[in-house]
Amino acid sequence: MSVEPAKPTDLGDGDHLEVLGYQDSFNRSMSLWANFALGFTYLSPLVGVYSLFAVALSIGGPPSIWWIVIVGAGQLLVSLVFGEVVSQYPIHGGIYPWARRLWGRRYAWMAAWIYIWAMIVTITAVAGYGSGFVASLVGITATPESTLAITLGLLVIALIFNFTGTKTLARVAQIGLAAELIGVIGVGLYLLVFQRKQEFSVFFDTMNVQGDGSYATAFIGSAIAGLFLFYGFEACGDVAEEVSNPGRRIPKAMILTILVGGVSALFSFGGYVLAAPDLASIVSGEDADPIPGILEATLGTVGAKIFLGVAVLAFISCVLSLQAAASRLLYSFARDGMIPGHRWLAKVSPNTKVPRNALIVACTVPAIITVFIYVNPAITLPVTAFAVLGIYIAFQMVVLGALRQRLRGWKPAGTFSLGGAGIVINVLALAYGVFAIWLLATPGSSGDVVADYAVWIGLGVVLVSGLAYLFIARPDRKSDAPAGDAIEVAERLAVRRAETASMSKVD
């Protein structure tokens, strides 16, 4: 793909970084479509829909599909706010540098601490779930031992690909994008057109999942159908220093990730519902893993195997994208001296121009968690339940920081701008985020304390350990990197652009 030229009054990528206090250290070989593919494979509608389909239907029935629309619209608002922020701050690491420049060092440290653990747990969960697809594809019986071995294998394969450089990351992400589109839109359309066994009106039929209670409660409980799906678009900004013309391209890539991911998820979820030969057994909870049966019944044995192959490609690409995003966050964190071992973590390979040491951590820690889960499977729920809530909290810390700066007079100075609508969108994005956090953090009602409060347990462990390190080690005092400078940077960018425009006229 040809490189999109910057406008004469735009700053060059290196000049923009210089205003922000950094120098170019990476190869800017990632195009708009490769950046979009990275975010899309991280978001992974195939993984999300397959993981949540049966659970969502058993809680909220077929109308649970509308959460994909509701959450997609809310996260689109968040992506627009992120777009303005990354356009002014096209820096590696995403959430961490954005929170730092919008608020301050300690605030950013906690945002990044929560976010990095949520990402690492997500890597663990995706690799673990992908092991089931690999086992089915090659005909291996899924045992704790085989699951452990395959999960570790997926983590190592992704690490090897990441080690080879940004171009390989972009290529694999694009292959993963193709696999995702085939697996979700292609199969979804086929099921909708040729294998439909239900009427479209089923999406308004509760099928009495509420019993004697209110359907509103059941519908709210099925919000996971969307909440567990729509994150990953922020990964487009995690690799900002490897994207050419990032101020324009990354906001577009994030918006595309939400829109295409949402449409893909709707086709996939809707297709499985309409093609289900026994929808009642899924809604009642009798069939807890219905998608393989639906595929066998509609695609045949060979077709189901082909789909499994496509799914494995999607899972590998998803783990690859997650590792890449986590490593860039660790690198950004370390570059500012804000994390133990920061000198080692901040090293960039002179040959491949990737943060190899940070990548090693992004593979090793999920591998260790995988071993813990193998030894004690009971920790799976509290560990994984925290991941999504952690992501949403970190997101809203950035959204809140952006709103705070706007109220102080900040006018985003990137090449992507919402103009006068920015503050309205910012307020709406924050309101949506608070609602989403409430949905995720609401305790269950099963009577099992660990299961009902799993999200709070996971969040509590991360918050307590993070605050303890922050106030004992005081990493914020060891870093002199800029913080809370959104208004000042906007002014400096305006001056530099004016100087660039004057020089262009003279030339």
Give keywords.
Amino acid/polyamine transporter I, 21 helices, mainly alpha, disordered N terminus, transmembrane transporter activity, single chain, 71% helix, AA/rel_permease1, 507 residues, transmembrane, transmembrane helix
Q: What pattern of helices and strands is seen along the backbone?
A: HHHHHHHHHHHHHHHHHHHHH
Gross CATH architecture: Up-down Bundle
The proportion of strand residues reads under 5%
The CATH superfamily appears as Amino acid/polyamine transporter I
Number of helices: 21
How many beta-strand elements? Answer: 0
Unreliable parts: 1-9
Which fold name is given in CATH as the topology?
Answer: Amino acid/polyamine transporter I
* Terminal Cα span: 29 Å
Which geometry do the CA atoms define? globular
Largest sheet: none
